[in-house]
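Ticket #4471: structure output looks truncated?

Reporter: J.K.
Steps to reproduce: submitted the chain below (383 residues) through the standard prediction queue, then opened the result file.
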Amino acid sequence: PPSASSSTPSSAPPSAPLSAPLSAPSAPPPTPLPTVDVVVFGGATLDVVAQATEPVRPGTTTAGTITQACGGVGCNVARALHKVGMQTLLVAAVGDDIAGQAIRSMLQSSGMDDGGLLVSTRHGTAVYNAVLDETGEMTSAVGDMAAFDELTTARVQEFFPVVEQSQAVCIDGNLAADSIQHIVAHCSAHGKPVMFEPTSASKVTRVLDANVLDQLTFIKPNLVELRTIAAALDIPCSVQPDQVDLVTIDAAYQLTRWVPNVIVSLGPLGVLAPEPRFQPCSKTRPESMALYPTLGMGQQLSVVNVTGAGDSFVAGYMAAVLDGRPTGLCVQAGLLAAQASLQSQEAIAPTLSPDVISAERCAEVFGASHGRPAKLNSDNQFF
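Returned output as attached by the reporter:
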């Protein structure tokens, strides 16, 4: 037999048969979920603000200035949260129009993630038109909010994986009751605290329609919204829309049977909230309510406009909550954020920053005695 040395040289490895299937192209890697501190579900609008420069005269033209800006309660809260140092995702619906593009561009230029914007093919971007008198107080407003109908249960559910990785959620009253119920139930199942910002008296009862009031961690009504939800719950409350009395204070406290953190905006008087040492995420009921005066009670505060003050308050308050502060310091942070808005031409002040609401800044401005039991004397004045 031939020797090994004389054997025919081995041939090259056979090539793969032509009929072998080609490997499928690899799928693109999944888009990573954003990691955020707070997810905000709510409205994004084009705000058109008419500011009178003379007393408003019904039935005729009043001289003034008109400005346009991106706004909406949810959008404003998300922007303010971002400015005070919270990584934030806004989930909102916009139209396929110039206003929607402006909102997306605003988020991008602010360094925020725009992945939560849902584009509607049925509705244009929501528009909010406010009229302010010569002092900066709002006299009337009109809103076209049909785009909010796009925030259905199916669409908001797309962002539940982000919710599960977040620290907290904020919902404004622009969402339908079924969407609110869907979000709150998911947050409750995953131990996420929820802030509800009612938006208006006509929308504050949507949390009752959704049957989730006792699953909220925070609710921030103004006096009119407080009276509306109190009436729906058969809680006695004053019928005077601009008066704070003992009945109103008790109504706020009665609401803590469902929501432990009831924060009531009193306008120039300040804020009603749980006592200063109450821990916001303790899941217990506070012992009492306290009054936290505004910065303007001892001095004349120059008010430029009020359109974003409440939204800025929510952002400052929530950021302090997530920083582990007790209620008194959380309210102080909210008031400082609101003050920045009140003194700015823009709803969310360009000057708003983590330093504005820092614990050191709160101590410097308010000292240690801010927040006192909410009691009235015989003249219905706080003492």
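Triage note (M.O.): checked the attachment and the full token line is present. DSSP finds eleven helices and 15 strands in the chain.
Status: closed, working as intended.
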